[in-house]
Amino acid sequence: xxxxxxxxxxxxxxxxxxxxxxxxxxxxxxxxxxxxxxxxxxxxxxxxxxxxxxxxxxxxxxxxxxxxxxxxxxxxxxxxxxxxxxxxxxxxxxxxxxxxxxxxxxxxxxxxxxxxxxxxxxxxxxxxxxxxxxxxxxxxxxxxxxxxxxxxxxxxxxxxxxxxxxxxxxxxxxxxxxxxxxxxxxxxxxxxxxxxxxxxxxxxxxxxxxxxxxxxxxxxxxxxxxxxxxxxxxxxxxxxxxxxxxxxxxxxxxxxxxxxxxxxxxxxxxxxxxxxxxxxxxxxxxxxxxxxxxxxxxxxxxxxxxxxxxxxxxxxxxxxxxxxxxxxxxxxxxxxxxxxxxxxxxxxxxxxxxx
Length: 355
Prior knowledge:
Radius of gyration: 53 Å
Structural class: mainly alpha
Helix content: over 70%
Strand order of the largest sheet: 1-2-3
Largest sheet: 3 strands, antiparallel
Distance between the termini: 19 Å
Low-confidence stretches: 1-5, 234-240
Number of domains: 3
Mean pLDDT: 78
Shape: rod-shaped
Strand content: under 5%
């Protein structure tokens, strides 16, 4: 790429300086002066434009600086410096929203402000509009990041609402939000009656009469009958079987002992029943304790449900607030997009883009 000739004195080789008042280049070493026409503006702008088009930003930047030393209010040079600061080659790239996440805002703003301050009055609006576009793009990036953050927080809050609702529906069965209060009362009574019935049956089972079960005497009676039949089948035996006699005697003795035990059991049964005839104090005490415990559990569940309902309301309110913020941010982002597009259209009206 062709470079702009440096300000070198062709006579002595010293570096030339610019005398803006006299509109001339001066050599501080040999005193030779040169008109501005020595470095023609058209050629410098051509070199800068070609370098910018080829993405050779350093060469273009040096060419524009060279020209701005001669003419500080040159529109093309000031605009070129702004484009280089934004790292773009054409003004129509300023419409791309992705651009604003890549440019150095401070550097771009500095060059645009330079254009506003140094440009001719008729060109000042162009750089003012450009600054508004860059400011809008910078704000767009910030608002877009805020929008993503708000969406993430809203999703987390919504998940929290679902989590609390599941917890309430699992444990807080008496929560007012679960249904009508009459339903909750009926459910509570049914559960209480069921608990009392289970406690009553359990108490009766634990405190049943230990002598209620009678001993089975039929096995002794069967043995006696079997031995009698054996004696009938051998009425004329001349040699008695001593084993059969011994078995009969033992079984008969066992039967008598069993009858005695059964008689004693009946006596014990009647005595136990008399002693425990009206002893319901233990059952009443157990039912009272059950009622207190059940009431305490119901109260805890009810209050826990109320607490979870309040937490759900707070979490839902936070979610709604975040949803409102998201809508506002989306509207603001849309407005910023329109502002950028309108600003670009205005730039094209003020000065058509050179391709």
